[in-house]
Amino acid sequence: MDAPTAALSPLLDLEGRVALVTGASRGIGAATARLLGRCNARVAIHYGKSRAEAEEVASDIAQAGGPPAAVFQAGLGSDDERRRLHREVVDSLGNPLLLVHNAGIYVRNPFEETDDDAFLSRWRTTQSVNLESAAHLTLLALPAMRTARFGRIVMVASRAAFRAETDAASYAVSKAGMVSLARCLARNEGPRGITANSICPGWVDTAMARPDVAARKAEIEAEIPLGRIATPEDCARAILFFLSPLASYSNGTALGLNGGSFLH
């Protein structure tokens, strides 16, 4: 969907609403931020480390004719940083009624680990960044959504939520938690006009996945009936669907987005 903002269908127009996209300096988050900007959202671009990449995404949105975007830094493993992020987004752009919880880390954490302190440290960091931040930022945004009687929440989970992982259980559990969190929110907030859904990608051509993809590309593609690894833009379009009027009746859905490599 590369149409200029002025030519948008009403079914894709996000009406100038504020959209907070976490982890939006690269990969799925950056592709999503760019697409939402083209669909008339005022995008809050969260980043953890690379301000330059985040500002490049904001510049791309402006060049495509979208509303001015803004960049915000926060370490999502910190309660206070998450509170500050929410406050700064509200002060700069307004209350975020569209939330895309995309930021995440993948750390191998095998059960063969003999150092339980190391295992627990990796486990807790993964849960805090991937899952707890999504719950916390949503909680902070809910009062404004309830007042507006409108909100759209999308969790960027993973097929690992259902397929499971043998050497990165902490990651798989965090993603399964995101799917469950979306469903809990869907049931609790649906009566207030707020929906929550998740996408569950398989392999995606992002910086985080690229080293593994480079080493196993032929093997990975052979497992995907569509014969290719997903692009960040494939994921961004699915996220846009859930944020747009096209998905006004979708609530609690976990959308598999893996080319058919894992069906459940």
Walk me through this protein's architecture.
This protein is α/β, with parallel strands linked by helices. The chain has one domain: NAD(P)-binding Rossmann-like Domain (Rossmann fold). It has helices spanning 27-38, 51-63, 79-92, 116-148, 160-163, 169-189, 210-222, 232-243, and strands at residues 18-21, 42-47, 70-73, 96-101, 151-156, 194-201, 254-257. The protein has a seven-stranded parallel beta sheet, sandwiched between helices. α4 (116-148) packs parallel to α6 (169-189). The chain starts with 17 loop residues before the first strand and ends in a 7-residue tail after the last strand. Mean pLDDT is 95; it is low at 1-6.
The secondary structure category is alpha/beta
Provide the domain count. Answer: 1
Largest sheet features: 7 strands, parallel
Task: Could you tell me the CATH topology label.
Answer: Rossmann fold
Keywords for this structure?
264 residues, disordered N terminus, seven-stranded parallel sheet, 46% helix, globular, Rossmann fold, alpha/beta
Topology:
Layout: E1 18-21, H1 27-38, E2 42-47, H2 51-63, E3 70-73, H3 79-92, E4 96-101, H4 116-148, E5 151-156, H5 160-163, H6 169-189, E6 194-201, H7 210-222, H8 232-243, E7 254-257
Parallel strand pairs: 1-2, 1-4, 2-3, 4-5, 5-6, 6-7
Helix pairs in contact: 1-2, 1-8, 3-4, 4-6
Offer a quick outline of the entry.
The chain is an alpha/beta fold.
